[in-house]
Each structure stands twice: as structure tokens, then as C-alpha cells.
Amino acid sequence: MDSWSAGLGRIIIVRGDRGEDLLETIEKTAQRNGVLNGFIVSAIGTLENCRIHRVVSKSLKPEEEYVNIDGPLEINSVSGIIANGKLHAHISVSDRNRTYGGHLESGSKILYLAEIVIAEASEVRLDRVLDEKTGLRLLKAI
Q1: For residue 134, what pLDDT is reported?
Q2: How far is CA 113 from CA 19, 52, 110, 118, 121, in A?
Q3: Which of 39, 61, 84, 136 is deepest in the core (most CB within 10 A)?
Q4: HEC states along the chain?
Q5: 89: nearest Cα among 36, 41, 142
Q6: What are the pLDDT digits (tens) for 2-49?
């Protein structure tokens, strides 16, 4: 385990519009506002479809599958960390019968709108660094 303390910088609010890619909307907003380190605090809205990947094995080199879920879908939540300008986000969505979750991928199209809140982290620099023991890129303060 490792942990770090950070200050809170700006709060950035964005509305994504119909037909936009949700992941690209978040990434472009962070880039345009110069957010190198931060957090996805909240996101609500609707999606035409949602593209995710999720882990399907317990092995140290995880096996993953990519899934496209057709909508309409409600966005229940999006959370994530921006480290050194790179976003790692997870999403939970539901249709009228099921709830789905996983790592948010490009190709998730906004149906009506999406409202997203990004909090900028100050006084810390984060990055994902390759860990030799696990082969995973782990979050670190640099």
C-alpha cells in the first residue's frame, strides 16, 4: 500500500452533448483546462451505447474482455483518476433490466447529455509506473 496527500484545485464542470464520445469529452476538457492530476467527482446523463472492458480472470496478468452495451442507458456513475494527464475511468450504467460496469472505453456515445465534474489535485504529481513484480502500471506520486 502507498498513499499521498493532495490539495484541491479548481472544480471544472462540463456538459457533453448528443453524439459526443464520453471518454473523449472528459479527456479534452481536462487537457483544455491544463489538468495534469485530478479526479472525476461525478457524472450523470444518458448514453446511446457504452463500451467497457472488464477483468475476467484472477491471474496476475489479468485476462480482459471488451463489451459494447446498446442503449438507451442511464449513467449511474463515473469515477476516475487523472495522473500525469492520462485518465483512468470506470463507469456504471443501467438499462431497464440490468446494471453494467467496467473500465470506460472510447466509443461510448452520449444520447441526450452528460454532466461531468472534474476536481483538480494540487500539491501532488501522480503517474502510473510499471511495477516489476506485478507487471501492472501502479499509481505513484512522483
Answers
A1: 84
A2: 9, 19, 6, 16, 26
A3: 39
A4: CCCCCCEEEEEEEEEEECCCEHHHHHHHHHHHCCCCCEEEEEEEEEEEEEEEEEECCCCCCCCEEEEEEEEEEEEEEEEEEEECCEEEEEEEEECCCCEEEEEECCCCEEEEEEEEEEEEEECCCEEEEECCCCCCEEEEEC
A5: 41
A6: 899 899 999 999 999 999 999 999 999 999 999 999 999 999 999 999
**Confidence tier at 116 by pLDDT (50, 70, 90):** very high
Domain ranges of the chain: 11-141
Q: What CATH number was assigned to the domain covering residues 11-141?
A: 3.30.1330.80
